[in-house]
TrEMBL record:
Pfam families in alphabetical order: DUF3039 (PF11238)
Species whose genome carries this gene: Pseudonocardia kunmingensis
Disordered: annotated segments: 1-26
Protein's name in the database: DUF3039 family protein
InterPro entries recorded: DUF3039
Superkingdom: Bacteria
Organism phylogeny: Bacteria, Bacillati, Actinomycetota, Actinomycetes, Pseudonocardiales
């Protein structure tokens, strides 16, 4: 297994304002993404791909206690433990 560094990133809602929001611009959920893609996306606006397959540009960093995508978390934990394959 290669050394795969990841970091939790936000899920960006691309729907029109007023639909499924938290009342402010805080993302509802954060995702795991390869670390080396974060700065590139934040600077250039490139889209990143989360472990769960969700795609979005990096716009925010998670704060401690932020909700994490359960699918990303499960995939990340299976990679850390060597997986079941």
């Amino acid at each position: 297994m290669d050394d795969m560094a990841t970091q939790v990133l936000p899920d960006v809602d691309t729907r029109p304002e007023g639909t499924d929001t938290t009342g402010d611009d805080t993302p509802k959920m954060f995702h795991y993404v390869k670390k080396n893609k974060i700065a590139e996306s934040a600077v250039l606006g490139n889209v990143v791909v989360a472990l769960c397959g969700e795609t979005f540009p990096v716009t925010r960093s998670p704060k401690p206690g932020s909700p994490v995508c359960p699918e990303c978390k499960e995939i990340y934990e299976s990679l850390q433990s060597g997986g079941e394959d």
